[in-house]
Task: inverse folding
């Protein structure tokens, strides 16, 4: 059974599609076939492609932004996900307020990084994911990756770099 990860941000045109497509690149490079990666927005710009500068950054790093279409977050997407990874604490609250049973498997990207780093180094794959989603990881003020939309290319680059840094540290450990 594949592991399903859903990345969540606001419009689903900058951060969450960037995380989805970059994580997909890492999964493909590792040759892992049992992962399903997706993204959605709490206030999605439904049908829109990845924002231009984020798409260009994805391409520069070897990921494919083509064919992406933003979609609205739905209860079905949430309940089908083994792990919901949000870009801001607000997004996590948005999910958990309506779906309290998803609290342990809904983490901000930086919460996920801390949770993975706290596990023994030899723990990987599904066992690691189960350990991470089986514990309570308290949110911290710095857990959010700020929304770069409308804030210029420097903000876009900063968000993209933060997402890559976290995914580079966590995705390889989550793969078997």
Result:
């Amino acid at each position: 059974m594949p592991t399903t990860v859903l990345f969540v941000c606001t419009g689903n045109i900058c951060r969450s599609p960037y995380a989805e497509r970059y994580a997909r690149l890492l999964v493909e490079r590792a040759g892992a076939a049992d992962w399903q990666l997706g993204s959605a927005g709490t206030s999605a710009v439904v049908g829109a492609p990845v924002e231009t500068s984020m798409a260009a950054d994805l391409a520069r790093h070897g990921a494919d932004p083509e064919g992406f279409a933003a979609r609205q977050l739905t209860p079905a997407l949430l309940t089908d996900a083994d792990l919901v990874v949000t870009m801001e604490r607000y997004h996590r609250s948005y999910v958990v307020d309506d779906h309290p049973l998803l609290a342990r498997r809904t983490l901000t990207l930086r919460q996920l990084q801390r949770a993975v780093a706290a596990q023994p180094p030899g723990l990987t794959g599904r066992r690691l994911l189960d350990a991470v989603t089986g514990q309570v990881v308290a949110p911290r003020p710095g857990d959010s990756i700020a929304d770069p939309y409308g804030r210029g290319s420097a903000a876009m680059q900063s968000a993209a770099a933060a997402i890559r840094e976290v995914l580079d540290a966590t995705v390889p450990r989550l793969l078997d």
